[in-house]
Amino acid sequence: MAGFPSIDEVTKSPAFPTATWQLEPHQSGLLPVAARRGGPVNISWEVHGDGPVKLILIPGLGFFKTAYQRQTMYFGHVRGSTYSVLIFDNRGMGGSSKPLMRYSTSEMAQDIVEVVNHLGWTSPRQLHVCGISMGGMIAQELAYAAPERVSSLSLISTAAKIENTTTFTENMVNRITMLLPKSPDRSIQYAAGAIFPPAYLTEPDSAVVPDETIPRCRIPAGGYRKFRNNYERFAAQEITKQQDKEAFTKKGFLLQLVAAGWHHKSPTQLKELGDKIGRERILVLHGTADKMISTPHGRKLIEYLHPGQGLIVEGLGHAPINERTEWFNDLLESRCSLGEKLSGR
């Protein structure tokens, strides 16, 4: 990806130390889960906000809970009297345990259920569940295991199972490209190109950074800085993550990759999920510019689930939570409002 700055250049940016926002949770902890499932496995979790609407944000493959910092700030801080937002690190990442064992999306969903039970979020139709990419696969498993607890289900840039949707030649080229050893610079550029459309990466940094008006947010000296473009902000967050050798490990990444690769919900299971939750409570969102999980995966989810809202968005990449933050937050808020209304609240 010629023309993009190197890791060294990004780390020298005045904005680099402020790439991760210091949003203070209302509650946090490290919960041992999976005692009877090969554990214990410690899950690092935070709740931002103390409102009555319970929102769970499930991160994708290789990402920490801070991947949702734009949503955490909006729902848990700007709207923190309305929402309580649960963010956490899936097993294998961040502050959570990284046991060497077979990971599955269903096991990771059970981890979340144990955290939610610990918080006392146990009422019927109380949980607004949102997952992106592998997080959307975990969200499917959570909803399938406990449909009576789900108020709304938002499945973002995800799949019922990963399938080859390209020609044999394209598939082989993609696999070889993915597996080839890469320099740290090339690795971040490759990820950026798979997650975001090229035009987005070159646009000026679109993040609305926190200021003194945001409750429970520590503002560093000089304030939160802006990067020159969206690529630099993504690269800075990736560099920050990968520099933490205890939180981000190749082992943890590969174990999560196995879980995502083996995830499978059949058309029959998805129909059952839709029947039990109620299709009007479900959103499926996918972009036509998603190079991480191709668009036919989203179309199949819509075909099998018949969700109340199924959106295939022209030109949208893999991470609308960053690429179209304000639009996405409004969409998620509307799904939560609908779920609350359908649940009689």
Topology:
Elements: H1 7-11, E1 22-23, E2 27-33, E3 41-48, E4 53-58, H2 69-78, E5 83-88, H3 105-119, E6 127-132, H4 134-145, E7 150-156, H5 168-179, H6 184-195, H7 198-202, E8 217-218, H8 230-243, H9 250-262, H10 267-277, E9 282-287, H11 295-305, E10 309-313, H12 320-323, H13 325-342
Parallel strand pairs: 4-5, 4-6, 6-7, 7-9, 9-10
Antiparallel strand pairs: 1-8, 2-3, 3-5
Features:
345 residues; alpha/beta; 8-stranded mixed β-sheet; two-stranded antiparallel sheet; globular
How would you summarize this macromolecular structure in one to three sentences?
This protein is α/β, with parallel strands linked by helices.
Q: Uncertain segments of ≥5 residues (pLDDT<50)?
A: none
Helicity range of the residues?
A: 40-55%
From the N-terminal CA to the C-terminal CA, the straight-line distance is 49 Å
The beta-strand count equals 10
| Largest β-sheet summary | 8 strands, mixed
- Quick check: average pLDDT? 94
Radius of gyration computed on alpha carbons? 19 Å
The number of helical runs is: 13
- State the shape: globular
String of helices and strands: HEEEEHEHEHEHHHEHHHEHEHH
Strand order of the largest sheet: 2-3-5-4-6-7-9-10
Give the amount of beta strand, in percent: 15-25%
Q: What structural class should be given to the helix and strand makeup?
A: alpha/beta
Characterise this structure.
This protein is an alpha/beta fold. It is built from 13 helices and ten strands. It has helices spanning 7-11, 69-78, 105-119, 134-145, 168-179, 184-195, 198-202, 230-243, 250-262, 267-277, 295-305, 320-323, 325-342, and strands at residues 22-23, 27-33, 41-48, 53-58, 83-88, 127-132, 150-156, 217-218, 282-287, 309-313. Strands 2-3-5-4-6-7-9-10 form an eight-stranded mixed β-sheet, sandwiched between helices. Helix 4 links the parallel strand 6 and strand 7.
